[in-house]
Amino acid sequence: MILNGKAKEDFKEWAYYNYVEDSGDLAMMRSTYRNALIIEWFDSVGIYIYLETGIYFNKPNFRYKIITNDDTCIGYKEYSRKEATVQAIKKANDIYNES
Questions:
Q1: DSSP 79
Q2: How many Å apart are CA 11 and CA 67, to the nearest integer?
Q3: pTM, whole model, 2 decimals?
């Protein structure tokens, strides 16, 4: 799992309460579905992840933007869609753990 520290524990508690019936369900989930749940959980705690797309040398690329309740906006360089999602979750994890 991408999350660690307080974020991981709080997410697991939220996921078990809202979506999964036992701990094996979360571990067996495809990463795409688990990442969607993580992003939904971040929404619930006021950390909003957005993926934006653009074209660079005729090739699509993605970057992420994170906005928090205090209007902090963090944006980063171009990635593939999957990598942008993973990097956004990692950065949101750091923001949550530091709060």
A1: B
A2: 19
A3: 0.86
